[in-house]
Amino acid sequence: MIRPGIQHFYDEQTGSLSYVISDPDSKSAAIIDPVLGFSAVSGRTDKSGARKIIEYIQTEGLSLEWILETHAHADHLTAAQFLKSELGGQVGIGQGIRTVQEHFAKVFNMQAPFRADGHQFDRLFSDGDSFQIGSLDCRVLATPGHTDDSVTYLVEDAAFVGDSLFMCDYGTARCDFPGGDAGLLYDSIQKLFSLADETRLFMCHDYPPEGRDLRFECTVAEQKQANIHVGDGVSKCEFIDMRKKRDATLELPELILPAVQVNICAGHLPDPEDNQVAYIKIPLDTI
Question: pLDDT tens, 34-60?
């Protein structure tokens, strides 16, 4: 088994983690869950985080093959199209994106030429699909529950789990977005727990409690033993009950409206109107 190179990048504003995975032999690479900064106050985008990823890839002499989304995020905009324009590569996501698009197309009244068929992405992955990053073997696990389109990318001994799991002291993802289902998330987590105990799990977010440094990696064994929501033999019924009660207390992410609007389009920003300015829609009294 080849051990992939893995470099993390942390976006403090949203608590989001992006990764560059690289094959040490071929220097082929993939980016997972890249962040495009965005100010909800000014409406300005910020590419500085994405440029750090570009600088790393260029400094390391890597060739980008893939830009992989674990799901259409609700808390940050994706930098997928900016990175693709600078570095190339194919943008991939789980095929459940079609269901997510169908729902939010109604929320945002998205008209033709928009179509809820996933064509905005270069590759739609199904459960069990395999692909390569250079000579690295990669497999896709459908892990719905947080969202319909959630997937985990298993790259050799490393799994990139999106929002399904957080670090053990923070627990698991919310399930109250459209298509969310706590029972499905429990089943998806059990699928992750069936991986070898030594499999390394990489989180999409970390919200360190006071006194703890940033953490983003642990093992399947650690999660099975210590995750506060689903570890140590928590039953499916117990998990569903906990998740429903907890989700009822949560506020929506600050950037959900701009983020989902852009992310279901694979990171393509809205087209400029006749005044050469692009606009994000904010539906009133809807979400």
Answer: 999 999 999 999 999 999 999 999 999
Contact 229, 242 (CB under 8 A): yes
Cα three-residue angle 204-152-203, rounded to 5 degrees: 20
The H-assigned helical ranges of 141-233 are 182-193, 220-226
pLDDT in tens, 152-175: 999 999 999 999 999 999 999 999
Domains and CATH numbers, the chain: 5-252 (3.60.15.10)
**Whole-prediction pTM:** 0.96
CA–CA gap between residue 103 and residue 259 (Å, rounded): 15
Between strands 130-133 and 136-142, the pairing is: antiparallel
Phi-psi region of 176 (alpha: psi -120 to 50; beta: other; left: phi over 0): alpha
Cα separation, 268 vs 83, in Å, equals: 11
